[in-house]
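Hey, I'm writing a tutorial for new members on how sequence and structure tokens pair up, and I'd like a real worked example in the thread rather than a made-up one. If someone can provide the structure for the chain below, I'll link this post from the tutorial.
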Amino acid sequence: MIKHKMVIKKVIPDKAFIESHVISNRFSPLSRQIIAATGPIISSAAAGMTNGFSAILLPQLQKPESSIQITNDQSSWIASMAPLPMAAGCLLGGLLMDKFGRKVTHLILNISFAVGFCVLSVAQSYDMILVGRFITGFSCGLVGPPASVYIAETSNPKYRGILLAGVTFAVSSGILLSHLFGTFFHWKMAALYCSFFMAVSYIFVALCPESPCWLLSKGQRQEAEIAFRWLRGYDAESTRELDDMLAKSTGSKEPGKAQEKQPSSLESILKKEFIIPLVTLLVFFFTMQFSGVNIVAFYSVSLMKTTIGSNINEYLAMLIVDLVRVITSLFACVLLRIFGRRPLAVLSGSGTTISLIGLSIFLYFQTSIPVYQNYSWMSLIFLISYIIFVGIGLFPLPWCMSGEMFPIATRGIGSGLTSSFNFVCFFVVIKTGPSLLDSFGTNGTFMVYGVISLIGTLLLYMILPETKNRTLQEIEDSFKAGWNPSKKAQRESDKV
């Protein structure tokens, strides 16, 4: 009998061993990838809730019957306290996910988000509100790098684009949800409801495996294979990708390559496979932020008053803009499944440029020449078209590509640096926006953003590579070879 048991153990195939670690064999590989992406996507929605929370918090605090009375200066600090630590949070998030893993970092930031929202829900003073805003803002920074990277590393190249676009869809949905909560509930209850989402996100993350790429980078080959099979199954394409990953990770251990040593962190970030995507994404994030995406979000109500008159309900205008943004983000998910990154970026950049310049021109005529005041609907059309065009490409794409362009050795620091740079640009744009509006007027400000959008789109056309339907290993190998955009790459990427 003992001998018989030993024989049974020896004939257990690897597939059976790996499948024994799967939650349920009833889930298809795509379903498992969606489950794995759900946790980071919900965490990203919390970032949107944080960004939108001040819009519902400040009006309630400024009411005479509010238990916490604030001055105009204090209200500005409440609004700016969340963006203040975001850049630092991004850098720490990149370091944490390289040191402790993508999954552990997500579990930590979910707890951090929940603590921040709970502090807001029980705040009894101005200082407690600042603490809650700081914690949630810092958590926004933490979620930036690992969300995109984890989804990119756990998804099939065919579905990577649409799953990554789910991050920006979640951010837009989070803004809408926080505004809805604040419209119908007290701000403390709104903060408490926001914290519930973090418990759901924590459960999804806890049920899913660690990133196979990170496990391989730490030498945990068996765990990496288990995680990969959990996510991707056993089809020929996935098996080929896994074999390629395993070969690359063990290449340095082959007899002929035994003398090669692992490069230091400094050497890794000086390599062209890190420098090229870094510069590309810095240009992309700069173009996205300085095309005015957050200025329009922050001043949407006043802009709509300028375009269609002052007889407008502020909460209704805010919810309309939120809804358009959410629908556009959902549409972007579909477009990223169909089209490549390059054509979508060029289409979005071109449409954004035309919308901004058109809006600037019509606002000028509308405010300077009385007869054109009857054509205010044209300005509204350009404003809505701007929100749509920036939402289908310039806004989601840099976040999507930050998770797939960097090599595994520097993916944490690379995504952390680019995300941090984005929030620095975000702060600069918001800080300089009022000065631009005072100096050049609304029409002049949008003309400035339109010119920046035009220049940025031209640069992206020249330097942005195509990553659609390519494995992360193929992308890394291409950058090592000095990958540049080409028509051949575009044709290959459009094949489904």
